[in-house]
Amino acid sequence: MKVIIIGGVAAGTKVAAKLKREDRSAEVTILTKGKDISYAGCGLPYYVGKVIADRESLVVNTPKKFEGLTGARVITGMEVTKVDRAAKTVEAVDEAGAVSTWEYDKLVVASGASPIKPPLPGLDLPQVFFMRTPDDAVNLRDAIEAGGIKRAVVVGGGFIGLEIAENLTSMGVRCNVLDMAPHVLPGFDEEIQEYVENYLAEHGINTMTGTRFEGVIGDGKVEKVQTDKRAIKADAVVLSIGIRANTAFLADTGIELAPNKTVIVNDHMQTSDPDIYAVGDCAMVTNRITKKAAWSPMGSTANITGRMAAKNITGKDVAYHGAMGTAVCQLPELNAGKTGLSEAQAKEAGFDAVSALTVIDDKAHYMPGADSFIIKLIADRKSRRLLGVQVLGKGAVDKVVDTCVAAIAMNATLDDMADMDFAYAPPFSTAIHPLAHGVNVLMNKLDGTLDSITPAEFAAGAAEGRKIVDVSLQPSIDGAPYVDLTRIEGEVEGLKKDEPILLVCAKGKRGYLSQNRMRYYGYTDTKVLEGGLTFNEVEIEEE
């Protein structure tokens, strides 16, 4: 069996390696346009910031090493320009312009995607960088080390853009992040995005959202970045606007493409031609929860689908259940992670979504390095099925996210998760695991034990007309009446039992405990502000 693989980064090399393990007799050839294969694209920002010291560390395998390890043939500098489905051949052009034809029994399209380069002025200046290949990262770090870059603009507030900004900042470069979208961190809910934007500003990274990038100004070098609002001084620009699937060579083949030009595949990673498969950034998959088409240009998805495609090519029957939008991102002293549906996405998908946001210790509070997680859980109101999670914190947010990946994949409800036997020791967790704590809060909300207002509802004015009552450990809100939780043993002086009250504390826990007591003593209209003062800005308006 002859198998031609177009593309040799994550997905293509995974297919090749697994194919040769499944069927050593298969004749596997990778044709790839670049000179590097199997490189760590997700690690590029960390090379820029010197977290990764050497370029060689970014390249997992050289062509020669990969051939020795797997038995697959690798030909670099070879761009596929045409696929003839009837003849079962591909046409390719090498760096010298020579054209060659390659026969296949099975074809794998793993051509990846390229960074979007809009037709705007100034993008050919030498201090304009992209971030897609090891050489991109090398060029940017070299420029920084040469001493000519003090101010940079990163165009694009996605995960790579923010990681680039973090690493530039660590190198002493002042950063602005531009994005046309209303907020950075796509896929997170708005209140989480706003929290992160404020946090980044406090750590020297200014985010300019809702701002259109219009080009670069400079005479022989980058001097300013032009936006629809104003020009920003800069010594360098890093474009991380997005990527576009490398599928132009398939345009006349009849292979079905999605509107964004990714290749449509079934759950076996087959295209509309059963002898042609597509994996990685150039392929459209499905969302595991909604079962609708989804694009998941992630190294993880590339490797998972590449492995499955190889099994199916060699005669096995393996179906891909779909991606869930899982992601994790390192920011300055803050990690952000998510999986599943955001609250907005869940509602758009037709779920009766309900959420709870909690601020929880990430490990035993008396341990060195203890901090907090901010966990937002989303579930379906009727079935109580977990739909999504978003986590912020200095600690291992990926642990919370990955646990929720497993729960969502197994269609777990909150009740299924409430008494899971999570690992506990003081250096790692709290006796009631932070995730279990978040689950309990959302269950209390669904059961009516907790009556609360989410940060999003608070920002939208849901607390208007309510008396704000400070129930923190110590008085923390200027102008608000203060109530000590431990002294609620009956009617609270100055508070009427039927007046609308908003209970606010540092994190939300004392608000819930205060509400519990006050209900017992006849207070009928109290609500707790989720996330407390840690997540929300609460001020008393002067009359």
Mean pLDDT level: 94
Label the structural class. Answer: alpha/beta
Total helical segments:
14
CATH-defined superfamily of the largest domain: FAD/NAD(P)-binding domain
CATH class of the largest domain: Alpha Beta
- Strands of the largest sheet, in order across it? 5-2-1-9-21
**Biggest pleated sheet:** 5 strands, parallel
Per DSSP E runs of 2 or more residues, the count of β-strands stands at: 32
Percent helix, as a range, is: 25-40%
Share in β-strands: 25-35%
Poorly predicted runs are: none
By CATH, the topology of the largest domain is: FAD/NAD(P)-binding domain
Q: Oligomeric state of the chains?
A: single chain
**End-to-end separation:** 81 Å
Detailed description of the structure:
Strand 7 (89-94) and strand 8 form a beta hairpin. This protein is an alpha/beta fold. Helix 1 (10-22) runs parallel beside helix 7 (299-313). The longest helix is centred in the middle third of the chain and has 15 residues, at 299-313. The strands form 9 sheets. The protein has a 5-stranded parallel β-sheet. A 5-stranded parallel β-sheet has the order 11-18-12-13-14. It has 4 domains: 2-112 and 244-313, FAD/NAD(P)-binding domain, CATH 3.50.50; 128-241, FAD/NAD(P)-binding domain (3-Layer(bba) Sandwich), CATH 3.50.50.60; 333-447, FAD/NAD-linked reductase, C-terminal dimerisation domain (Enolase-like, domain 1, 2-Layer Sandwich); 452-535, Oxidized Rhodanese, domain 1. The chain is built from 14 helices and 32 strands.
